[in-house]
Amino acid sequence: MHVLNLSWKLVLCLLLPYGLLAQDNEALNRTNKIIKKASIPALSLAQLNGNDTPNTIAIGHKNAKEKNPIDPNTIFSAASLSKPVVAYITLQLVHQNKFDLDRPLVKYFNYEDVAADPRHQQVTARHILSHTSGLPNWRPRGKALTFRQDPGLSFKYSGEGFVWLSKVLVSLTGKKFETLAQEMVFQPLGMERTSYVWRDSLETNYALPHDKYAKPRRKYFPTQPNAAASLQTTANDYALFLKALLDGKFISKSLQTEMFSPQVSIENYEKQGQKISWGLGVGIQEKADGLEFWHWGDNGTFKAYFTVSPSTQKGLVYFANSSNGLSITQGITDLYLGTAQPAVMWNDYPQLGLWYHLMKIFK
Predict the structure, then answer these.
(1) Of 82, 149, 107, nearest to 297 (Cα)?
(2) Dihedral angle sign, alpha carbons of residues 241, 247, 253, 258
(3) DSSP conformational letter for 181
């Protein structure tokens, strides 16, 4: 992490001890200034405040050229925020005694893409969900999928692992993955505008992706589900999902506790009592003021982030239709939550921030 980034983040904690509510006009004005400064056409955000109804804001444009405004129903690509949904489906099947987190996946399904390496016989769902499978994030284009290291050795982020796990769940249940997600998560939670594949009902209201110069790019419309990356959703829908995780819906208390418990520590990251680890499908920020679970999403021209506290039941999720969408994470979380975010420092996306705090002091 750059020294400059570290210095202003220390200042943040002193200047912003309290978060602002989403309906606060001052917060909305500052949010608008933040995304304009970062050349982000649109931001869709939902804030959880410990009650049943998320506060949702939608600022900006679906297409920076056409200036057509987004609204709370506008679809964004969720990128890797797809992965916690896979974890939730998996844990529901465990709760129903249909699946075992620690049984080798090969006992359920023979995945030919990894079958040539005997190490695949060791990999379990726990390995996949905690990113300790030993697989790469993605295989090189046109090349075979190979292990980077032995399973269970250490944290290595892997989208490939989630694709493998989704194929296991499909084989186990005999249902298509999109059907599983709809029946076990989206429909029961009222997530009406969420899908791993593109649907006609989403066609009239979606955000276009943009590069770092706010130039519109072509949107990808997934025809096949990618469990690690293809989720299409809204901030409000995703907040309903996060609320279900906080409430422990459809899984036992013990499984909920296990999901939010560190399965593997992130190597070389422990600063001032703050630690980053990984649970089952979610990252964990261990801080002096408590534990939060979190995840980020990066599909290039769509970015996303969430962080939620099990103890306070507060948090947020946001989606941005820009390559710059993760440059504002610290500013947005400071504004709406006022809590430290070690995950931002660990991820090391360059942050826009010092200007924001000077603006607040000297406005």
Answers:
(1) 82
(2) positive
(3) H
How far is the C-alpha of 314 from the C-alpha of 50, rounded, in Å? 5
Q: Which two tokens stand for residue 8?
A: 């202003």
pLDDT one-digit tens code per residue, 144-167: 999 999 999 999 999 999 999 999
Q: How confident is the model at residue 271 (pLDDT cuts 50, 70, 90)?
A: low
pTM above 0.85, yes or no: yes
The label of the residue with tokens 């090349």 reads: 143
Query: Which candidate, 166, 207, 236, places its Cα nearest to that of 301?
Result: 207
- The full DSSP string for 73-124 is T-BEE-GGGGHHHHHHHHHHHHHTTS--TTSBGGGT---TTTTTSGGGGG-B
Give the chain's radius of gyration (CA, Å): 20
Task: Give CA torsion, residues 54, 58, 63, 65, to 10 deg.
Answer: -170
Distance CA 306, CA 136 (A): 23
Mean pLDDT computed over 82-92 = 98
In order of 82, 161, 196, 254, 286, the CA distances from 228 in angstroms are: 5, 8, 10, 25, 25
Query: CA-to-CA distance for 151 and 131, rounded, in angstroms?
Result: 9
Displacement of CA 156 from its chain's centroid (Å)? 17
Burial label, 219 (beta-carbon count in 10 A; 0-12, 13-18, 19+): middle
- With vertex at residue 273, the alpha carbon angle to CA 247 and CA 277, rounded to the nearest 5 degrees, is 50
* Cα→Cα distances 351→37, 88, 238, Å: 12, 31, 24
* E-assigned strand segments in the chain: 42-49, 55-63, 68-69, 76-77, 232-233, 264-271, 274-278, 283-287, 290-298, 303-308, 314-320
